[in-house]
């Protein structure tokens, strides 16, 4: 790890226990669906990173500044207000066909899975995994 260390590190916490405590119930159910989808697409088991991020796979990064660390290849967090997806390689701007969402720096925010087209979301996750494989080969 870099000098300061990472704030979000992989833990040994129980992912299912974490998901069971997510509120509201709709977010908990959506979280379980996303966890199963990401596990299937990545071929990796879910792991808790920090207190609230569920990640799949891992990669090691090293910046020109010398900072380095490990992070999940893809991840999401079932926050109280919305689902936050941590996907890379999606480019800038809108994601046509996805449905109701918003973008942040490196994040995709969705209020509920019923607001989006799950086939488009699956394609975005696959695109992110392919980007990670090209940028950080296993």
From TrEMBL:
<dbReference type="Pfam" id="PF08818">
    <property type="entry name" value="DUF1801"/>
</dbReference>
<dbReference type="InterPro" id="IPR014922">
    <property type="entry name" value="YdhG-like"/>
</dbReference>
<feature type="domain" description="YdhG-like">
    <location>
        <begin position="27"/>
        <end position="127"/>
    </location>
</feature>
<protein>
    <recommendedName>
        <fullName>YdhG-like domain-containing protein</fullName>
    </recommendedName>
</protein>
């Amino acid at each position: 790890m870099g000098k300061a260390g990472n704030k979000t590190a992989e833990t040994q916490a129980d992912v299912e226990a974490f998901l069971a405590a997510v509120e509201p119930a709709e977010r908990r159910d959506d979280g379980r669906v996303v966890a199963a989808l990401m596990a299937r697409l990545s071929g990796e088991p879910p792991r808790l990173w920090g207190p609230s991020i569920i990640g799949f796979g891992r990669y090691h990064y090293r910046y020109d500044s010398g900072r380095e660390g490990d992070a999940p290849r893809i991840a999401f967090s079932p926050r109280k207000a919305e689902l936050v997806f941590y996907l890379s390689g999606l480019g800038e701007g809108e994601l046509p066909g996805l449905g109701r969402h918003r973008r942040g720096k490196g994040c995709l925010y969705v209020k509920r899975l019923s607001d989006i087209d799950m086939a488009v979301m699956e394609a975005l996750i696959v695109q992110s995994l392919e980007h990670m494989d090209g940028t950080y080969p296993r």
